[in-house]
Specification:
CATH topology of the largest domain: Mitochondrial carrier fold
Largest sheet: 2 strands, antiparallel
Distance between the termini: 49 Å
Order of helices and strands: HHHHHHHHHHHEEH
Mean pLDDT: 75
Number of helices: 12
Number of domains: 2
CATH architecture of the largest domain: Alpha/alpha barrel
Low-confidence stretches: 292-301, 310-328, 340-359
CATH superfamily of the largest domain: Mitochondrial carrier domain
Strand order of the largest sheet: 1-2
Radius of gyration: 29 Å
Length: about 350
């Protein structure tokens, strides 16, 4: 059932966000600070500084934006991924995982881009402007739309798609590769596989993520824009900082990616296992997508069995709710009035319409 993929993705995304958002705040600060006059010596120095200035609450600044949409985003990612695999001729192949992950990444980037724009600006506004300007993501996006129109809201969409398509392809392929190495993976191994897949994916896509973050804060609060697009951002950043800018924020990203994706995959896989075992009556799989059974006849009879179980439960409840002796009397009168006789294992039915007319 495709709905369970969406539900599992929603729960997994929310769990992962709660674990990983503080490190995402550190990542954004590291990626966007002035390299000529850096505020932080490294990820842990940034973390300590944010804790000292804004306490623990400051690490979760801007979380309302991704939390509002994380249900939709992860539901779309795992829903698209599961449904693409379900229609694949060979769902266990790495090519199937690659194509399903790529399509899932492209689909979610359309929704993810405006939300990350609001999240990034909310995370940085107090430090860049000296005081908080927006009370939440809705007010932030409304202001961006008022100043720059729909193009401003979707600023960084191209970079987001270029990050997410290869990112989610490598994300799911690496996870499935690790899960297939072990015969009976437990929760600890699933945590390891999910965390490793997330770390690998972010290591692969961190350069384009740096460009995306810089594009989305460019021209913040009506300031003059520095970049005309991704290529211009790359050229100017490389000219100013060298190739080191491509890995800026990598440490904090990996610190966030491992626990966040470890928790996400465990919640998703356990949700799917629970559904398969307790609802569908099938042995749970090791993957994050429910595969289509290879035996249509078996699936047909499984469906028939569930229907019959439902009918038996209904009939049992109906039998408890009424008086069986009254049902027998009603049936006897009905048989007599309609002259139904049983002979040679056959039923001769002659309805008495006058009985209904008199009634």
């Amino acid at each position: 059932m495709s709905a369970v993929d969406f539900v599992a993705g929603c729960l997994g995304g929310c769990a992962g966000l709660l674990v990983g958002h503080p490190f995402d705040t550190v990542k954004v600060h590291m990626q966007t600070q002035d390299v000529k006059n850096p505020k932080y010596r490294g990820s842990f120095d940034c973390l300590k500084s944010l804790m000292a200035k804004e306490s623990f609450r400051g690490l979760y600044r801007g979380m309302s934006s991704p939390m509002v949409g994380v249900s939709a985003i992860n539901a779309i990612v795992f829903g698209v991924y599961g449904n693409v695999q379900r229609v694949s001729s060979n769902p266990n192949s790495y090519m199937s995982h690659f194509l399903a992950g790529s399509l899932a990444g492209f689909t979610q980037s359309i929704i993810c881009s405006p939300m990350e724009l609001a999240k990034t600006q909310l995370q940085l506004q107090k430090h860049r402007l000296g005081m908080a300007k927006f009370n939440g993501p809705t007010q932030c996006l409304s202001y961006v739309y008022h100043c720059n129109g729909i193009r401003g809201v979707f600023r960084g969409l191209g970079a987001t798609a270029l990050r997410d398509v290869p990112g989610f392809a490598s994300y799911f392929v690496s996870y499935e590769f690790l899960m297939q190495l072990k015969t009976n993976p437990d929760i600890l191994y699933t945590l390891f596989a999910g965390g490793t897949a997330g770390a690998f994916s972010w290591t692969f896509t961190i350069p384009i993520d740096v460009i995306k973050s810089r594009l989305q804060i460019d021209g913040m609060n009506g300031e003059q824009k520095m970049y005309n697009g991704m290529i211009d951002c790359f050229r100017k950043s490389y000219k100013t900082e060298g190739s080191a800018f491509l890995t800026r924020g990598l440490n904090s990203t990996l610190l966030r990616a491992f626990p966040m994706n470890a928790v996400c995959f465990v919640v998703v896989s356990e949700t799917l296992k629970h559904w398969q075992y307790h609802i569908e009556g099938k042995p749970p799989t090791k993957t994050v997508a429910i595969k289509q059974t290879k035996n249509p006849t078996e699936d047909h009879w499984q469906h028939k069995r569930r229907i019959m179980q439902g009918l038996l439960h209904f009939s049992s409840a109906f039998n408890d709710a009424i008086c069986p002796s009254e049902i027998m009397e009603i049936a006897y009168d009905w048989f007599e009035n309609n002259k139904i006789h049983f002979s040679n294992n056959r039923v001769n039915f002659k309805p008495n319409y006058e009985t209904y007319l008199d009634a």
